Amino acid sequence: MSRIFSFLLFFVGLCAGVGLGWWLRDGQVPAVQVSATEGQASEGVFLREPRLTGSAVTDRAGSGEESQNTDFETGLSQIRDLVARQDFGQAMAQLFTVAETASTFEQRSRLEVMLADVSDQYARVLAEQGQPQLLDRHYEEITLRLPELPEYYMKLAELRIRMGNRDAALAPLAQIQNHPALGEKARKLLAEAEASGRQQDELLADIPLDTYGGQYIISARIDGQFPVSLMIDTGAAVTIIDPGVLRRLGYDLGREKAWFSTANGAVAAPVVELGHLAVGGAGIDDVWVGALAIKAGGGIDGLLGMNFLRRYQFRIDQDQQRLHLEYQR
Is residue 21 part of a domain? Predict the structure, then answer.
């Protein structure tokens, strides 16, 4: 009996020891796992790139805007320096570069004001040099580089019309014919240009010429009735009429102006559109002329320029003192 009892006590003690051991083992595991997890999480935080929030983001954005403003102001300063040196080609190139970086309404507005000023000064210089072709190229480049500025399409078209090249004026006018501010004027000029292209006057042979001071003088008529004496000047891009003559005919000289080259340099003078200008049997409607007193003497009222003559194939017969005109074929 004593042996059996001893064996039972031993067996009970063994089971109790095993159970206690398993209980203690289960209670220690969570502490180890929590410690490991915390260590990994802590390490991950320090390896992650810091994120910018709040004032840090504002500081970085402000720094970028400040840099952009500095570049813009530097660009404007360079343009002013180039204009002061009369280097208008480089000034315009720099202006186009600055225009690509202008991002705010204020910057774009300031740039448009500067463009208008530079363009006006350049037009004056080109007029003084007698180079309307370069002015044409200047306006055309603005329309290509800054197509959002409609006024330069109109400047280009009006220049070409004054030069007697109405066909070339059609393209820029077509671009702005639906513009809210310039569309009505553009459509009117388009209609006039197209009508002018359909005009068919009598074929001309020749027109007698007078001479004064070694220059050829031709008789002309304004609006079919008012006679004027004009000096033929193939170096003048635009026909010139004395302001007094135009006032007597009722033309308003207080509206548009353009630059003209004179013996005293470039001057800004009114430009008006005559209803009709004729020499001999040749007549053209809607001819732009400059209102300038040329002070040539001899009763001369102005100059007959290329915006009239280029409409024809013309030749001056110096021996017979006659102007031969034929229509362009």
Answer: no
Instruction: Tally helices (H) and strands (E) across the chain.
Output: 10, 11
- Pick from 202, 207, 220: nearest CA to 316: 207
Range of the domain at 181: 67-197
| Residue 225 sits in the same domain as residue 167 | no
CATH assignment of the domain containing 72: 1.25.40
Q: Is residue 27 part of a domain?
A: no
Q: How many residues does the chain have?
A: 329
Each residue's pLDDT tens digit, 139-168: 999 999 999 999 999 999 999 888 888 888
Tell me which DSSP letter residue 268 carries: E
- Specify if 247 maps to a domain: yes
- What whole-number distance in Å separates Cα of residue 261 and Cα of residue 268? 9
Residue 289 within a domain: yes
Per-residue b or e along 257-267, where b marks 16 or more CB atoms closer than 10 Å to that residue's CB: ebbbbeeeebb
The tens digit of pLDDT for each residue in 221-256 reads 999 889 999 999 988 889 999 999 999 999 999 878
CA-nearest of 259, 289, 304 to 127 is: 259
Question: What is the DSSP-derived secondary structure letter of residue 238?
Answer: S
Say whether 111 sits in a helix, a strand or coil: helix
Tokens of 80: 């002013």
Q: What predicted TM-score, i.e. pTM, was given to this entire model?
A: 0.56
C-alpha 265, offset from chain centre: 27
* Percent of residues, the chain, with pLDDT higher than 70: 76
With CA atoms as reference, report the closest residue to 97 among 116, 74, 81: 74
Same-domain pairing of 152 and 235: no
